[in-house]
Amino acid sequence: MQMCDGSLPLISVIVPAYNAENVVARCLNSILGQTHKNLEVIVVNDGSTDGTRKVLEDYACRDSRVRVLHTENGGVSAARNLAIAQSAGRYIAFADSDDWFEADAMERLLAALCRADADIAMGQYAEEPTKGQGADALKDTQLLEQDDFLRKVFRDGVQRPYYYIWDKLYKSECVPQDCFPAGLRMGEDVEAVVRMGILAHRIVEIPEVVYHYYQNPQGVCLSKFSDRDLDLETVWNRIVDLIGKRMPHMLPYAQINRKRLNFTLLCRLILCDDRKTDIQFHQEEKRWHKQLAAQCAELTAANIPLGRKALMIALAKLYRPTKWAMRLGNRLLRRMKRISAV
Asked: In this structure, which CATH number among 3.60.70.12, 3.30.565.10, 3.90.550.10, 3.40.718.10 belongs to the domain 11-215?
């Protein structure tokens, strides 16, 4: 797609890959098959121990647009930061190795960005294999100023997550080289989107699906609560500190989402439904419930969906019976899914 000045800009697409030999081909095929052809695909082999290296090198041999960087396993943040430092594109996009783009994703996002004179363009994503777009599916293109976008990232009145990195196209000047926080195993993309949002003055959102987010059906049902989940507290503490320093007028929105995290972590722990995990994180569970109870009035006064507020109140006031009911409902749901799959 040509820009307003008639040029065909280079887009850098960054893909971290760890033990992805069985899925990365689908991702790379979707990128190399884009209708916008002027691309560089930077794939970081993050210390894979399977056949990922060979798959990536085969692609690099077949298509000169593919560059492969090999590194010791340092996590997805370090891999993305390395690729950002090596990128040459005027624009940058991200993908996870088990996901894929629509064939015209880059063309659509670039066209929207050009028309709106925006710094970030974002589209919709579909969850696979369910094909669902989730809540708040957009009907028409909308322009967002910086504050409006960050309020959505902080989930002010919306259910659709705006903090994913892979449904967007960014001007390269909005993507600092240390954008992704090192050492975190979960939530690193949330902080990265906030950092990029701080550098963006205008964001355009289009209604078309541009990205397919693959969730392993077994993993969704059986995922375990672990120390990784605790990284979310670190991420949101960092975000609150960052917003307080850079955009203090937005601090109340960041703070309310940090307080909402206590509710989120409680729900994740409850739905994990594992006795050993309950014992391991007993102290955290007590702390999150205590904080939720203390902050319940403030949270229920915030711009949060009504169903979430009702569950917050139930957990704050009647924790044990609500926990039991949630687990019972989740067990019944899992059983129904197994029966329907037969």
From this structure: 3.90.550.10
